[in-house]
Each structure stands twice: as C-alpha cells, then as structure tokens.
Amino acid sequence: MKPTDINLDNPYYAYLFAFIQTDGHLYNNTRDRGRLSIEVNKKDEHILWAFKSLLPFNSSITERVRKTNFSNNHTSVIWRVYDKRFRDYLELWGLPNGCKSELIKTPSCSFSKVDYFRGLIDGDGSLGLTCKGFPFLSFVTSSSHIVVEYIELISQITGKVKTSNRNTRDSIYNIVVYKEDAQKLAKHLYYDGCLALSRKLIKANEVLNWSRPANMRCVTNRKFWTPEEDKYITNHPIESSMKVLGRSRNSIELRLWRLNKQSKQSVTN
Fold first, then answer.
1. Residue 93's Cα: distance from chain center in Å?
2. Residue 210 phi/psi, 5° resolution?
3. What are the extents of the domains in the chain?
4. What's the confidence (pLDDT) of residue 161?
5. Of 26, 209, 212, 214, whose CB neighbour count within 10 A is largest?
6. CA atoms of 151 and 158, how far apart (whole Å)
7. At what angle do helices 179-189 and 113-124 cross, to 10 degrees?
8. Is 93 helix (H, G, I), strand (E, B) or coil?
9. Single pTM value for the model
10. How far is it between the farthest Cα atoms of the chain?
11. How do residues 136-154 score in pLDDT, each as one tens digit?
12. In the CATH hierarchy, which fold is given to the domain comprising 119-208?
C-alpha cells in the first residue's frame, strides 16, 4: 500500500488508530523529531506485527523485561514508528500528544465506525461471560466525546438507549451491555476476518455461542424512570405510587433505595 492510500475508511487503519488512542503514545520534539510507540503484553505481540506489516513506513519491534507489581520478569513488546509522515496522519486525524485519556475524540474525518470501536474495546474494553455465565461487553473511557458516539452505536445495533455517568471513585465511564445485547454488539464488532486481538476474538466467540436458558425471563420493554416519577414516589405512599404509575412494589422500593443512595453520595461529595 502506498503512503497516499492511508485513510480511516480502511477497516485496518480505523482499528489501528483507535488502538493507538488507547494504548499508544505520540511524542513530538523539536526539528520535526518524534515517534509513535505502542507497548503491549508479550501475549498480544501478534497485533504489533500485524500493524508493522500494514504500515508502508519503516518501524521496529523490540522486547523488554522488567519488574512490576505482578511479576519479577514481565515481558512486553514495543512497536515504534519514527516516520514524520505517519505522525502527520495521526495529528490530522485528531490524536493529541502525550497523555490523552480525557482528550481523545472520534476521528475528525470519515472513518469505519465498527472497526474503530473494536480498536477501542480491544484497548480499553473487555468481553466474555460473567461469573454467572451471562455474556457481557464492557468499555471504559475517560472521554465524554467517545461515550456519546459509543452510546449512539449501541443504540443503532441493539435498538436500546443507554445512558452513562462518570463514577464517583475515579471519574470514568463504564458502559456495559449484557446477554442478547452483548451478542448483537459482538457480532457487529468482531466479524469474520476482522483485525483484532486473538484473545478478544476467543471471548467474542464465547459470547456469540451463549444461549438463554429456557427458564430465564427476558425483559424486552424496560420502563425507565422519569424525573416526574421520581418526584411522585418521594412525596406519596408506595400504594398510591403503584396505582398511579402502574409499577410494582418491588420496582418502587428499589427506586427509592437508589434515590436515597444517590442523595447520600451527593452530600458526601
């Protein structure tokens, strides 16, 4: 591929750019010097070799062994690209220099959306089966820009409207879908022949091979609480709320508990 053919409508480059946004580091110094580097665990080395073969610029792959909190001999693999032409592409697409977790946005040009979000999930997401054996697909990010676009993608694929707020502990978003919704999302993201981490492809197959047990109830039209309903149940008896709102006692009691918990958290903060 020629350097002039690099664009994010290409599924491989869309995935690569997203992976760089999560696990890559762009450095630019004086006199047009700089580099792009990605460091991954040894078990994910194959993805770096795929990147190296994909890119029409010279690059290098090296290993390093160091002591970490989890291992005395942790082996990682680093891919480095020094060519300014590639760094220019990254900046053109919107990649900031240095620390970027809260700054990243979807590309500022046309791009392959499914492949792009698969790259983000391979970097900062997880999927598989829960301890109870239910499929899940989660994505963690600090970027409010990415959250908006990802929630829109989920809505397009599953038909469900998701919401997400930053958690109070470390101010990040954690968006999770379960069961059939996770299967629908995984089917679109991890299609046959796509570029992805091999361990994530294995997990995607686990998600897709799941079948809902015959005795498991499926909720298809979940009713979301509105601010008006919240105000009503906090000012009226449960019996009255059940009749007026058409909700069960368990639903109202659970909502009151959550509202009380949120109120305590806001006071603490």
1. 19
2. -75, 145
3. 3-99, 119-208, 227-268
4. 78
5. 26
6. 10
7. 110
8. helix
9. 0.79
10. 73
11. 999 999 998 999 999 999 9
12. Endonuclease I-creI (3.10.28)
Record the tokens describing residue 178, joined without a space. Answer: 């379960």
| CATH of the domain spanning 3-99, picked from 3.40.50.2300, 3.10.50.40, 3.30.70.890, 3.10.28.10 | 3.10.28.10
Q: How far apart are the first and last CA of the chain?
A: 53
Q: How confident is the model at residue 101 (pLDDT cuts 50, 70, 90)?
A: low
Give the closest residue to 252 by CA, choosing from 262, 238, 266.
238
- Are 181 and 160 contacting, i.e. CB atoms less than 8 angstroms apart? yes
User: For the chain, where are the alpha helices, taking DSSP H only?
Assistant: 11-23, 45-54, 84-93, 113-124, 144-158, 179-189, 198-208, 227-233, 238-245, 249-268
- Which residue bears the tokens 């190296």? 52
Q: In angstroms, rounded to a whole number, what is the distance separating the alpha carbons of residues 182 and 136?
A: 5
Q: Are strands 74-81 and 34-41 parallel, antiparallel or unpaired?
A: antiparallel
Query: d(Cα 153, Cα 175) in Å, to the nearest integer?
Result: 12
